[in-house]
Amino acid sequence: GNSVTQMEGPVTLSEEAFLTINCTYTATGYPSLFWYVQYPGEGLQLLLKATKADDKGSNKGFEATYRKETTSFHLEKGSVQVSDSAVYFCALSDRGGGADGLTFGKGTHLIIQP
Amino acid sequence: DAGVIQSPRHEVTEMGQEVTLRCKPISGHNSLFWYRQTMMRGLELLIYFNNNVPIDDSGMPEDRFSAKMPNASFSTLKIQPSEPRDSAVYFCASRGEEGHEQYFGPGTRLTVT
User: Fold this and answer.
1) Cβ <8 Å between A36 and B50
2) Nearest CA of chain A to the CA of B71: how many Å?
3) I need a surface site. Which of A26, A33, B41, B101 has the fewest CB within 10 A?
4) What is the DSSP string of A65-78?
5) Can you point out the beta strands (E) in chain B?
6) Rounded-to-integer distance, Cα B104 and Cα B90, Å
7) What mean pLDDT comes out for the span A30-51?
8) What pLDDT digit, counting tens, does each position of B22-74 carry?
9) Residue B95 near residue A101 (C-beta atoms within 8 A)
10) What is the dihedral of CA A75, B92, A39, A3, to 10 degrees?
11) Rounded distance between C-alpha atoms, residue B39 and residue B19, angstroms
12) What's the gap between Cα B103 and its chain centre?
């Protein structure tokens, strides 16, 4: 079956630090990969996506590259802000393989200190 | 455009009572998903619909849970009877026909005492 593994936090960084949140996956087909962000008390917001190997998703200064050879989709940001504090979820779906629902990692709680 | 709408946002009920959660997907989206989020188990897919038809309900935990989608703009998730272990945040999400990404509602926080 499909699965997603991501580093669990909390991850605590100072403002303007470089961020990496690791995510690896296993899938039987050719999945699409996503990063979602959840702010306290809110639903999940799509942060970025990549639908095929070597695609790079980017949004709001965050980036992630779909690496098929390492089955990874690590999230990066060059300079984090206090407002980036949230829980980040890596996820995959495999529409072609009949797994339409999202399979999520357990989430990484990110705390940015001023 | 309005996003996915869920109601109620919070629900507190006593064990044994029936609970109905509601979802309105984004207009034009043809797939709808119900998820549950708990601290212990994270985010889990319960059931999803495609063109109002249930496709995969293997994530529904027990017969106490049921979901319907009578039309393209409305879905319900019902728990009858409810139990304290059903306490969680329940999310609804929708997706367009050609898209890969799902868009989530704000969730319903259910507390069963």
Assistant:
1) no
2) 20
3) B41
4) E-BTTTTB--EEES
5) 5-7, 10-13, 19-24, 31-38, 42-50, 53-56, 65-71, 74-79, 88-95, 103-104, 108-112
6) 10
7) 93
8) 999 999 999 999 999 999 999 999 999 999 999 989 999 889 999 999 999 99
9) no
10) -30
11) 21
12) 13
Tokens of B90: 């329940």
Q: How far is CA B7 from CA A8, A53, B38, B106, in A?
A: 31, 38, 19, 9
The amino acid at A51: T
Average pLDDT of the residues of chain B: 94
Tokens representing B105 are 């509602």
| Partner residue facing A106 (CB), from B42, B104, B106 | B42
pLDDT at B16 > cutoff 80: yes
Q: Please report, in angstroms and rounded to a whole number, the separation of the first and last CA atoms in chain A.
A: 41
Report d(CA B6, CA B78) in Å as an integer: 13
**CA–CA separation, A34 vs A51, rounded Å?**
9
